[in-house]
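Session log. Operator J.P. requested a structure for one protein chain; no other inputs attached. Running the standard single-chain path with token output.
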Amino acid sequence: MRRIAAATVVLILLACKAVEPPYTIPAGYEAYRFAPLLLNYDFIDTTTGTNTHYVWAADPLYLGLNCLALSPRTSPDTTGQFVFVRNGLNQGLMAQYINGVLGDSVIASFFAPLPPGTKGNYAVTSTGRLNLFWADGTQSRYFDPTAVIRLLGDTIFSDVDLRDNGDSVRAQWNVRWLRNPC
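Structure written below.
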């Protein structure tokens, strides 16, 4: 319990120090906001028998904001431009389950060391697959080129299964963005 309290204090202090420039989403774009409580991350290492599952803790809440916004489109138009904006730390407390047993909570950042980028073009297939063609940045994790990203209704789903060492080490992310003002 002390570790959770200490982590909460650290997150609050970091949030107070975070100063980010304002972000801009062009008028008319459909904004989809990251839903941290819907994120799941699994790290599986079959060489050690370790299966670690992480979920965002509901308290304290996620600090920061990131949005994927798509330019307006009308049927049958399925292409356009997008922007990706973020503000704040994009960190929070994650509950860690090791082989199904709740362990320590950890402070986690949503982004890899290099941010994914800020803009590009997109195309949506007839099955809802959302293909993002980034103009800048480094795509990894949730935006890895192997990720399956879908646009269904008011939700963008990003599911990725990365493998290493002959598939003995796996990292799986399931990320959701909900249509919501940013």
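Operator note: Residues 1-21 have pLDDT under 50 and may be disordered.
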